[in-house]
Amino acid sequence: MNSIVTLVQRTTAATPLALAPLNATSLRDQAYTLLKNAIADTDIYDPQQELRLDERQLTTALGVSRTPIREALSLLEQEGFIRTVPRRGIYIIRKSKREMIEMIQMWAALESMAARLATSNASDEEIAKLRHLFDEFQNSPPSEHLGEYSDANIAFHTAVIALGGSQMIMEATKNLMLHVRAIRRATISQSDRAARSIVDHLKIIEALERRDTELAERLTRQHTLDLAAHVDLHCGFLG
Amino acid sequence: MNSIVTLVQRTTAATPLALAPLNATSLRDQAYTLLKNAIADTDIYDPQQELRLDERQLTTALGVSRTPIREALSLLEQEGFIRTVPRRGIYIIRKSKREMIEMIQMWAALESMAARLATSNASDEEIAKLRHLFDEFQNSPPSEHLGEYSDANIAFHTAVIALGGSQMIMEATKNLMLHVRAIRRATISQSDRAARSIVDHLKIIEALERRDTELAERLTRQHTLDLAAHVDLHCGFLG
DNA sequence: GTCGTTATCGTGGTATACCATATATGAAGG
DNA sequence: CCTTCATATATGGTATACCACGATAACGAC
Questions:
Q1: Residue B142 contacts residue B149 (beta carbons within 8 Å)
Q2: How confident is the model at residue B2 (pLDDT cuts 50, 70, 90)?
Q3: End-to-end Cα distance, chain B
Q4: What is the spatial distance between Cα A122 and Cα A98, in angstroms, rounded to a whole number?
Q5: Strand, coil or helix: what is B15?
Q6: Burial degree of A165 (CB within 10 A; 0-12, 13-18, 19+)
Q7: Could you check: is the Cβ of residue B14 within 7 Å of any atom of nucleic acid strand D?
Q8: B200: closest CA among B230, B185, B231, B222?
């Protein structure tokens, strides 16, 4: 599972063989993808988690020079995943509660616009596929498969955004998703949110099917703003 | 200024140390800002315009090595301003009409969310300031000062977003603004858009003043979506 | 023992040399 | 002339050496 610790430990441990095929893309892009996935898979809100990165360590861990590592880190810094402090180190950023809420609000803005666009652009077939995402939860309540339901939940929102057809919105929400994913997973098990969530989703699907632009947009926005309000009330562990 | 003597005197004297902004920025950041401004000030849709950049040329022009230039270019590439093609060159990107429309739609999503948030977060005084942006156009029609009105127009939208209070949305729209600015300027003189624009703006301000969340959001969204539709119809010069 | 001074080191920032390869150039062959 | 192939060149990618500077430790004065 590609945690940062795992990456660094590879230095002393086994061979850094994982990056043998360097023919396809640049080392910078490979390092970027690798580091981004590693950060995404790290539970950065665990107080025990080490959040400091070291260029030289990453160099030996990935078997490349500092240059591509540094370029990859620059990109991650601009995306808000890390912060470099001269002569101190490079740190993975913990988002504050305020930042997390702002990201969710931004998500609400973009997904509701996507839903609006979807009522004009998406085909009936594409919209119908949304229902199948929840087929397996029709008979048994989602509380029994929280892990699977959480994945389906995220898949649903991603799918709605895809139906909007805007490459720009899809790109913008990809990074938001990485930041927000941990929160969605953590809150799905709180106060029966899973059951209420599935009701909201079905209403959104119905609105899309009926091509009710205003309703689809409003329901989508409100559903995600509810998450923001929930985080505001129940996620005190965030700074 | 900033002689050694001055610096030393500041140290020994008991002056309140208000001198935060010494040139603490890295060459990478300076190059990034410089290049970004240069690109923003370039009329990239002029067919005559040379769009190719050259790393080595930039190094001699800016008097630094390739390293910070390359890092700055990496950032600009990720933001969608340039594209580097291995062994071909680095090119400033012309946005296609589709991409331009998608950016405007995204702008509509974010600004309307900001307007929604503003009805809860902004103070009466802050909202009142919006009116002053158009004071100078009260008596004379904006068509007589298109340049100034265009600036006021952009300032208005930026101000609405600021009233929302979301740092995240403000950041995200900054780059969108750079891309869209040229289009806003170009279309303000078309088909009496300036006069209609000012009417829309006043309605938005009224909605904000009355704390009518839904209305402020809807008017803001529709105003910008109108621009998207206008670009779709009248900006054939875009790819 | 406490405080201040100095030496060393760790770290990110920068410059530069080198590399790989697509493209351009041009000479040779037809 | 045209085609073909070898060579040269340009350009982005990578590795590495060096630098500046803050932090920390080691040390000395009192």
A1: yes
A2: very low
A3: 50
A4: 34
A5: coil
A6: middle
A7: no
A8: B222
Q: Which long-range contacts (CB under 8 A, 24 or more apart) does A128-135 make?
A: A128/A209, A129/A159, A130/A156, A130/A159, A130/A160, A130/A163, A130/A201, A130/A205, A130/A208, A131/A205, A133/A159, A134/A198, A134/A201, A134/A202
Query: How distant is C1' of D22 from CA of A85, in Å?
Result: 11
Q: Distance (Å, rounded) from C-alpha B111 to C-alpha B117?
A: 10
Query: Mean pLDDT for chain A?
Result: 84
**Best A87, A105, A179 residue to mutate vs chain B (most B CBs within 10 Å):** A105
Contact A114, A208 (CB under 8 A): no
- What is the C-alpha to C-alpha distance for residues A132 and A152, in angstroms, rounded to an integer? 10
What SS3 class is residue B44?
coil
A82, A85, A100, A102, best to mutate vs chain B, most B CBs in 10 Å? A102
Q: How many CB atoms lie within 10 A of CB A106?
A: 25
In the DSSP assignment, the letter for residue A91 is: E
Can you give the pTM of this predicted structure?
0.86
Task: Using alpha carbons, select from A115, A126, A133 the residue that is nearest to residue A218.
Answer: A115
For A211, phi and psi rounded to 5 degrees? 55, 35
- Give the A:B interface size as CB pairs under 8 Å: 67
Alpha carbon of B118 to those of A109, A153, A226, B212: distances in Å?
14, 30, 18, 10
Q: Which nucleotides of C are covered by protein (CB under 7 A)?
A: 10-17, 20-23
Contacts of B70 in chain A (CB under 8 A): 71
| Nearest-neighbour CA in chain B from A109: distance (Å) | 5
**Using the CB atom, is residue B151 less than 7 Å from strand D?**
no
Helix (H) or strand (E) holding B91, with range, is strand B89-92
How far, in Å, are A217, B124, B142, B229, B234 from residue B226 at the CA level? 17, 28, 19, 5, 12
DSSP A173: H
Q: What angle do CA B112, B118, B123 make, to 5 degrees?
A: 155
CA angle A16, A21, A22 (to 5 degrees): 95
Could you tell me the two tokens for A134? 């929840």
What pLDDT, in 10s, does the model give residues A76-128? 999 999 999 988 899 999 899 999 999 999 999 999 999 999 999 999 999 99
